[in-house]
Design a protein that fits this description.
The complex is a heterodimer of chains A (241) and B (252).
Chain A (H helix, E strand, L loop, with lengths): L3 E3 L1 H17 L4 H8 L5 E3 L14 H12 L11 H15 L24 H4 L5 H10 L16 H7 L2 H4 L2 H11 E2 L4 E2 L12 H11 L10 H7 L5 H6 L1
Antiparallel strand pairs in A: 1-2, 3-4
Chain B lengths: L10 E2 L5 E8 L2 E8 L11 E8 L2 E2 L2 E5 L12 H4 L6 E8 L6 E6 L18 E5 L7 E4 L9 E5 L5 H7 L1 H22 L9 H12 L12 H18 L2 H8 L1
Parallel strand pairs in B: 1-8, 9-11
Antiparallel strand pairs in B: 2-3, 4-5, 4-6, 4-7, 7-8, 10-11
Helix pairs in contact in B: 3-5, 3-6
Classes of the chains: A mainly alpha (241), B alpha+beta (252).
Chain lengths: 241, 252
């Protein structure tokens, strides 16, 4: 499939479609394809990028395939291309919206998960494709903490860490969080990492990082270096990692 | 007054030691920085970095050492300019002789030559043209400035919007009173009415008191009546002082 980007009319048509699907609590695949493949609604991206068929819903795998297909590391301007990411949302929509437990209805979440908001740092990371692809492109395996699970999932730890301006785009800090709280063997977050009122959890990590940025140039440090300067309360997580 | 303590030994680098200017070369925005550290302010071999940023997105440029600052050959900040007209600059002096990069000196929000008025004054409400995905024409944003200072953001898909926001009487009359009310609401919610510090809210409280002449402040943020009255008085005084209605009518 050749990757495209919605033009202005395409963005509006996709937005209208999402509104309708949300009201109907289901996706009409025929209408979706009609908008996505309508030549009046989208343009090809200069360079012609092709996306292979991606099986499954692994966030890591989808982020890897898209980032590779678009060569995002070299095409950083695409990080903020709303037409592109919304077109990709339309392509992956059936993986992005899942059925509400115990019903046959689709559980549409807030718009920012499907329609990229490039103008707001505290909403950009919510997009289910753009943010994982940014993480993969910049950090690959070192950003696993934000790449675990299925593509439709966000999770408490993402909310706790990605919602902080100084954390979400700092490669060293994201890598440090992965070292501390991601269990590579199990492919999951270490149990208790998102807990409240326990020393060294993601919540405390967030606070300590805010203090450390006054003392250290965190942008010049990698994840391992950041982990070594964390106080004793993080020992448990250092050992678990 | 909120007192701030610095336990980190990190030195504040005065802005007057740094000059940053922007230039457009072949359609791309670059910056040039000239840094003059006072003698013995930092170890000579400490590294110097300049980070242009907007929100969480930042770029990082190696400017050599304190003794020998060097402008890198490429300082393209186009990636940030795609998001916002306004780009912030911070400078870091880092001790890399120890294993972890200890921050020895720091300066944030370094003004560029094209910031503010030509005479060096800066407006209390900065107008920034940004990419907006929300179909809004304007909004007050408290989350992009590192100190939480409110910025009046306007949608840059509208031709000449930044100039319009500054000079058009319609825009001024319809937008500014409402924007100011939002800003004062935030001051109220934060509950700090002390105007003696250098925080953004102190500047706004002072602006209301000295420029708009609204001298009676709410005793606390919990006194809703007083808070409303304060914000109301300030907006009314603003509209009178800057003749918003007259300006609007003139353009009819």
């Amino acid at each position: 499939m050749i990757i495209k980007r919605f033009n202005k009319d395409g963005l509006i048509a996709f937005e209208d479609l999402l509104r309708q699907f949300r009201a109907d609590k289901k996706i009409d695949a025929i209408k979706l394809i009609a908008v996505r493949d309508n030549p009046n609604f989208s343009d090809e991206i200069e360079g012609e990028y092709t996306l292979p068929t991606i099986k499954g819903t692994s966030k890591f795998e989808i982020a890897r395939q898209i980032s590779t297909a678009l060569n995002l590391g070299e095409n950083k301007n695409l990080y903020y291309d709303r037409g592109l990411w919304n077109w990709l949302s339309s392509y992956f929509l059936e993986k992005l919206v899942v059925v509400k437990k115990g019903t046959a209805e689709l559980d549409f979440k807030e718009d920012a998960l499907y329609q990229l908001e490039t103008d707001s740092w505290n909403r950009y990371y919510r997009h289910l494709l753009a943010f994982p692809c940014w993480i993969y492109s910049e950090l690959e395996e070192k950003g696993q903490i934000f790449l675990r699970g299925s593509i439709h999932e966000r999770g408490e730890i993402v909310e706790q860490l990605a919602a902080v301006q100084d954390i979400q785009r700092n490669k060293g800090i994201v890598e440090a969080a992965t070292i501390l709280y991601y269990d590579e063997g199990k492919g999951s977050i270490v149990k208790g990492a998102a807990s409240k009122d326990v020393g060294g959890t993601a919540r405390r990590f967030r606070e300590v990082i805010q203090q450390f940025k006054m003392t250290f140039d965190l942008n010049s440090m990698d994840g391992a270096q950041i982990v070594t300067i964390l106080p004793m309360e993080f020992d448990k997580w250092r050992k678990a990692s | 007054m909120i007192r701030k303590f610095n336990y980190t030994n990190r030195k504040k680098i005065p802005h007057e030691f740094i000059d940053i200017s922007l230039s457009i070369v072949a359609g791309a925005t670059h910056f040039n920085a000239s840094i003059n550290f006072p003698e013995n302010s930092f170890p000579e071999n400490a590294k110097v970095y300049i980070e242009p940023y907007y929100g969480p997105s930042y770029l990082r440029f190696d400017f050599g050492t304190v003794k020998n600052t060097i402008q890198p050959s490429a300082t393209d900040i186009g990636e940030l300019k795609r998001i916002s007209d306004k780009v912030y600059f911070r400078i870091k002096v880092v001790d890399e002789s120890v294993e972890n990069g200890l921050l020895l000196g720091f300066a944030d929000k370094i003004p560029t030559v094209d910031d503010g008025d030509p005479d060096g004054r800066t407006s209390i409400l900065y107008v920034n043209a940004v990419e907006m995905d929300t179909n809004e024409v304007w909004r007050v944003n408290f989350s992009t400035d590192p100190d939480g200072m409110p910025i009046l953001e306007v949608n840059r898909s509208i031709d000449g919007i930044r100039e319009l926001a500054k000079n058009d009487a319609y825009f001024f009359a319809l937008v500014y009173p409402s924007a100011i009310r939002q800003i004062l609401r935030k001051v109220i919610d934060d509950g700090d009415f002390d105007d003696s510090s250098d925080t953004w809210s102190a500047k706004w409280v002072k602006f209301c008191r000295t420029t708009l002449g609204v001298t009676s402040l709410p005793r606390s943020k919990d006194n809703e009546e007083e808070c409303e009255a304060w914000a109301d008085s300030a907006v009314r005084a603003f509209c009178k002082r800057y003749k918003t209605l007259e300006g609007y009518k003139k353009q009819l």
